[in-house]
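Two records follow; treat each independently.
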Amino acid sequence: MRVHLIDGTYELFRQFLAPRPGHLDGGGTEVGATRAVVASMLTMLEDGATHLGVATDHVIESFRNDLWETYKTGEGIDPLLREQFPILEDALTALGVTVWPMVEYEADDALASAAVVASADARVEQVIICTPDKDLGQCVGGKVVQLDRRRDTLLDADGVREKFGVVPASIPVWLALVGDSADGFPGLPGFGAKTAAALLARFGHIEAIPDDAHAWGVAGVRGADRLAATLVAGRAVAARFKDLATLRLDAPVGTVDEWQWRGPRSELGEWCVRFGSPRLAERAAKLATQRGSGDS
């Protein structure tokens, strides 16, 4: 059994920003990106996916906004995109797909939590986290891989190490040093990706990096004395950044059996009419018949 875990918020953004026309429903609401994500999930099912869950940010803000004032918010999101957040959740539910709408946590926390649940299930051979987000690299290893569906690139633990220069478990520490512009925290000034990777390869944790740059024993680090001073002054804030980048593993995601696709719900037909794509409902019904599934 393979389990697919999808970052629904990323997929919605990706489809909304794609260079294709949107679609207004009968009431004048833009639903083009939602339609595209639903079609994409259906294609994934047609390609053989059986157990899958889609994590969404029901709201952009989370507990992390209380930890860092500039952490990402919903400010600046196109209203035509923002209003599709709940629409996507309802439409995917009509397709019969498990949806995890996060409020206190983020979608990434749900993906990480589901990866832990799936990895612990002896029936599961592989867990595929579908997102390009750097922070999900911390979950990779064992059964878990990370798939960038847009670029069609798959990362296992060796792939994460090759791409970022650190082992998956060190991704939160690496992000604490270099920052994550997508999530709104800057890292420590002057620490680039290669320098951070070299130091973590040598010491493993920020706490273990000596205050004295002469004790680093890492070749090719420019401005080492200046970086050491920055680190000494910034250890407390770096610890906070690490906390921000560390995904929580206790989001409520249920069990692997609950993620099995058992066919669309009856309301999918109404959604597909709203999308102007009745063919989607026909495809879903055909697939359910082929798998011996009925209305869920």
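The next record belongs to a different protein.
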Amino acid sequence: MATEEKSKGPASYFPSIEKKYGQPIEHWLDITRRLRGMKHMEMVSWLKTEHGMGHGHANAIVAYVLAESK
């Protein structure tokens, strides 16, 4: 019997981000990776302003990208 493991942390938002904004999550991660050098909340604000993202979705993407570099 196969069990599907649910995503935890920021990645748990990815399916709803893809559904709501119509792009694969890799699209949003690539855009956000180009913002490195900005502070966390600056990146969140940019995604909200430039792409109309909700705070939770933008924050999840930024947190995921910043965690990659740790």
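Discussion point: The helical segments are 14-21, 25-33, 40-51, 55-68. How would you locate this feature using only the token line?
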